[in-house]
Amino acid sequence: MKKIEEKVFRFIDRHNLIEKKDNLLISLSGGPDSVFLIHFLSKFKKRFDIRIGAFHLNHMLRGAESDADEKFCARLADKLGLDFYCTKRDILSEAKKNKISVEEAGRMVRYSELEEIALENHFNKIATAHNCDDNSETVLLNFIKGSGLSGISGIPARRGNIIRPVLCLDKSEILSYLKISKINFRLDSSNLSSDFERNFLRNKIIPLLEENLNPNFSQTVFRNSENFRNLLSGIEETLERFVSGFVRKHQTEIEISKDAFLKLPEGFYGIFIKTILEKYLNIQASFVDVNKVLSLLDKTAGLKVEISGGYNVHNERNSLTIKRPLNSKDEIVKIKVGSEVVIPAGKLKIENVSASKIALTNKKNIEYISADTIEGDFELRCWKKGDKFIPLGMNHSKKVSDFLTDQKIKPSEKKSRQVLLNNQKIVWVIGERIDERFKVNKNTKRILKLTLN
Q1: Can you tell me the distance from the alpha carbon of 51 to that of 161, in angstroms, rounded to the nearest whole number?
Q2: Angle at the Cα of 66 (from 162 to 125), degrees rounded to 5?
Q3: Residues 330-344, mean pLDDT to the nearest whole number
Q4: Which of 1, 198, 323, 400 could serve as 253's disulfide partner, Cβ 3.0–4.6 Å?
Q5: Rounded to whole angstroms, how far apart are CA atoms 330 and 344?
Q6: What is the pLDDT of residues 106-127, one digit of tens each?
Q7: Dist. CA 353–CA 333, nearest whole Å
Q8: CA angle centred on 401, ends 399 and 405, rounded to 5°
Q9: Average pLDDT of the segment spanning 387-401
Q10: Calpha distance 27→386 (Å, rounded)
Q11: Strand 304-307 to 311-315 pairing
């Protein structure tokens, strides 16, 4: 037991994951990994000098079993004297609505809820219980799908305010610790099925690799993924010094100078394009995407290719221009609080903020709104004939068309301007002005920040 605890201490210290006076919100599923994490941090709470809370998401995927998980987590938090937060969401419906896998929907909702609860309850960090085996599955899955160097770099010990203190431990070490300590936990029956991609690797492929090739497979992958991550960091720092010389970001597109790009060592071409697509356009670029872009370098000007995210790459005489075609007038995009989407005008992000974080500026690309009357998801679309809103500072409604004319928006640009709506009310004429009904005042309890980059 002590050996395992010391291993976690060293990992936390090496990556500077926890500092004195940190407030940690732990993602608690009830499974062995998160139960180990919450017991470990509770046991050494005074040593770390931290405050701890626990969050559980009821996915509603396994009926009574999911409800039993929730009750188990609530009792555990109570036993340890921790604040407990719980949300129940229909993940299957979320997956169908957003046309994504159940795994992805669960991950998306979980992190969104964690961020919101952390903000509302003054937790500065979120702790998840990803372990060394999870990292192996991630690396294998990404390698098989051809995600490149970033994919085989695995799960980072820290990303933003999210920390993973037990990433260094094998599943077997965690189970051994819990058994010796006589600590109970829940088992997710869906993990026994190999229908999901991760479960297939976990239950079928990795055991064969451990049995026939390397019994320490997960630890080997973990060390290699850390090496890859350090290599990737070095490459990105190197590229960052070159970027300003041949990449120009306009409001709705990115332009790469071909002459300057071709002066790079050829070995950098692929990783450079992938990094630019991910950093500036938030595209998880595949091997195919990167090759499509590179194929234009020796082709005739005027050609274009389509890549992930609905973007087109245009081969100009002296540059490659990457942009999305204008949205259809009828297209409606759903946006959740805590998420971001790429639109023709840039990257739109909606996030919770506390009143103390408000920094008022004259910039039209940043707005703060009251979320006290916000219901459900936001919708984004092009404005339509007849659309009205109450521009901030006015006491009467105005047609969006007339407002844009008053703002001296060119007729050629006017038709593509978009509006953000909630519950069928226009909240923001994107990049111009919010609606008076959503302004922040002294009685506002909840605030959202709208950012267009």
Answers
A1: 15
A2: 15
A3: 80
A4: 323
A5: 15
A6: 888 898 899 989 988 999 999 9
A7: 23
A8: 115
A9: 92
A10: 46
A11: antiparallel
**Across the chain, which distance is largest between two alpha carbons, in Å?**
74
Name the CATH code of domain 333-452 (choices 3.50.40.10, 3.50.4.10, 3.40.720.10, 3.30.70.260): 3.50.40.10
Instruction: Give the model confidence (pLDDT) of 378-390 as tens digits.
Output: 999 889 888 999 9
CATH class, range 2-223: alpha beta
Q: What is the mean pLDDT of residues 280-299?
A: 84
Looking at the chain, the domain(s) classified CATH 3.40.50.620 span 2-223
pLDDT of residue 194: 57
Q: How far apart are CA 403 and CA 433, in angstroms?
A: 10
CATH class of 250-323: alpha beta
Q: What rounded mean pLDDT belongs to the chain?
A: 87
